[in-house]
Amino acid sequence: MGLVLLFLLALLLAAGAIFLFVRAGQRERHEDVQLRLRAMGGGEDAAALIAEPQRQVRNPLLRWICHLIWRTGVEIEAETVARSLLVLVLVVPVAVMTLGWFGGVSTVAFVLVFLWGWLSRKAAQRRAKILEQFPGFLEGTIRVLAAGNTLEESVMAAARESPDPIKPLFMSVGRQVRLGAPIEGVLMELAEIHRLRDLKVMALAASINRKYGGSLRSVLRSLIQAVRSRDSAARELRALTAETRFSALVLALIPMALMVFVFIQNPAYYQQMWADGTGRILLIGAVTLQLIGVVIIYRMMRSVEDAE
Hints:
It is a single chain. The chain is an all-alpha fold. It contains twelve helices and no strands. It is elongated and about 75 Å long. The two termini are 45 Å apart.
């Protein structure tokens, strides 16, 4: 029990270190923004643009983690995420020395899976809210377009009148467009980050309208009808699969909860198994199969959410 408390203390210290890294990075960037604004005489839009996180990340693993965090609505820089990952890597040897090879690696793996599931859940909830607000946002965009404004002006006007979380999403689009970025490119980038296929359709419509002309309002009206029809079908699908998804969640959580309970009550149980060659193979196989099962169950549940 003392080893478990020591490991939890190490996790708290690691979390505190990550928090300090994040705060230091934000403070440093805020000071840099202030210096640039004093030098250039920029306004609020310039400050907001400079404060946005860097979206282009070359490292595939870091880019995947950054996109996962950005989908939750947390605006954090890629450099800060990289520092946090470095701190988490340093936690692994502490966990191994405290709980042993099996206990340390298993605990870290389960913690990472839990964080991944929690972030994915938060991102899915935010995505659902965006999709719910998207038809109303498009209707506001169409009204401004009908008054003779450009698509960029219409998007900004509709974003100012929209609630969160769709408002900051499209306000960032307007800021980037005002500084010279093409709106179709910005929309396509946001669609990739937030996994919103409707934004891709909107980006393609904007690109075709820019190159060949045509009625953009009719395309947006068709998009509104498609979003609402898909939302109705997705709600019916979720209602039909609610029991199955709950069963999958129980199957994923019960083995991990039992393992943690047994380890807390009797740590020597797993230590004896780890000391034996056959027991070591069985433990490694059990943890591997459990993680694979969690990923498969997650993908099955995600397929229902992707239908939205």
